[in-house]
Amino acid sequence: MSTLKVVQSEIHTACQKAQRNLQSVQWIAVSKNRSIEAIEALYQEGQRHFGENYAIEFAEKRKALQERCPEICWHYIGQIQSNKINLIAQADYIHSLCNLKHAEALSIQATKAIRVFIQVKLNPEEHRGGLVPAELDSFMESLKSHKQLMVEGLMTILPLQPEMPASYWFQTMKALTRPDTPGLSMGMSEDFREAIAHGATWLRIGRAIFEGL
To answer: Are 132 and 123 in contact, with CB atoms under 8 Å apart?
Structure first.
């Protein structure tokens, strides 16, 4: 059984345990630093959603695969850089929006609607991107003027605090969701089963899909 099929089976089992419909959970093959050939092989197996962290690498892969893999759906999951907005705006989904200047620039550069997730920083002391929960309301309100950006929901990368279980952070994220933007981008190779149990709708899985569990 291929690594992709193994991961799909694990996702199916986790959905059953959580009493969730399999269609309520999508998974992204995180393909940063992976070859064009590896991505194409997964595409031939049926994988359609791929995630990239670096704008230039994403743009190169998108160009190389747009004819060979016409149904591929690209997710930009890395930090947004102002000088790379024109490249990032080519993505179908962006999972790391947390800056209004970036939102405005993306809206200007976009040639189609872009589905976006707002990145949430659950530990304000960590030096990583994201809004703290108290900033979400005003940020969401400001995004309403950017018609090219369709807010799907929230995204997080779990804090580096081993004393706190992943379930605590996943529950915190679930509590922040809204009825009109219910998407939750959370869960990676190590913890996607638990993320499913706590409401994740998009999983970002790299190693497990490309190398195996």
So the answer is: no
Q: How many structural domains comprise the chain?
A: 1
Q: Provide the CATH number for the domain around residue 191.
A: 3.20.20.10
Cα gap 119→165, rounded to integer Å? 20
pTM of the model: 0.97
DSSP state of 129: S
- Per DSSP bridges, beta strands 114-120 and 26-30 are unpaired
Q: Which residues of 6-43 are buried (b: 16+ CB within 10 A; e: fewer)?
A: ebbebbeebbeebebeeeebbbbbbbeebeeeebeebb
Segment 115-170, tens digit of pLDDT: 999 999 998 888 889 999 999 999 999 999 999 999 999 999 999 876 789 999 99
Q: What is the pLDDT of residue 39?
A: 98
Cβ atoms of 165 and 131 within 8 Å: the answer is no
CA pair distance 32, 36, nearest whole angstrom? 10
CA proximity to 200, closest of 211, 208, 191: 191
Question: Structural domain of residue 72, as residue ranges?
Answer: 3-211
**pLDDT < 50 positions in the chain:** none
CA distance 62 to 39: 11
Q: Which residue, chain included where needed, has tokens 């703290």?
A: 132
